[in-house]
Amino acid sequence: MSKDSTTSIDPHHKPYMTNLRDVPKVGGLKAKDGWVNMQVQFLIDQKSADSDKLLVGWTVLPPGAQHDRHRHFNCDEFWIVVKGHGVMYTDDGGERPSGEGDVVFTPRGHWHGFKNTSGEDVVLVWGWSGAGSLEAAGYESIEGGRSH
Hints:
mainly beta, globular
C-alpha cells in the first residue's frame, strides 16, 4: 500500500470496541410504535461509534415479545437468530417460521418483523446498512404509524 492511499483516512474516526455488558438498553421504545416487550441494545451506532451508515444491535425477545411489522425507508436490515425461534413477518403480510441459525436480509422499504412464539428467549443480532440511528433509518410501523 502506498503512502498516498492513507490520505483518505479520517483521523477523527477510530476503531471502536465495546461489550454487551457495557451497552445500556435503549429507552423510550413504545409498544404503540411496534416495540412490544423487547430488550434492545445499539452496539455500534452514530452516538457510540460515530457510525452514520451502520448500526449493529442485539435484541432479546422474551416469550410473547415482538417487533411488529415495520419498514425502514433509508436503510437495509439484516438479522441473525442466535438463540430460540418464532415467526418472521413477511412483506406480503404473512408469517414464516424462523429459528436459530437463520440469516434474514430485508431491503429498504420492505415490511418485516419478528415474534417470539416459543417459551424461551429469542436472541437476535441485527443491523442496518445506510443509517446509524433510529431517526436516520426512516422507521414506520404498521400498528403505530410513522415514528421517525
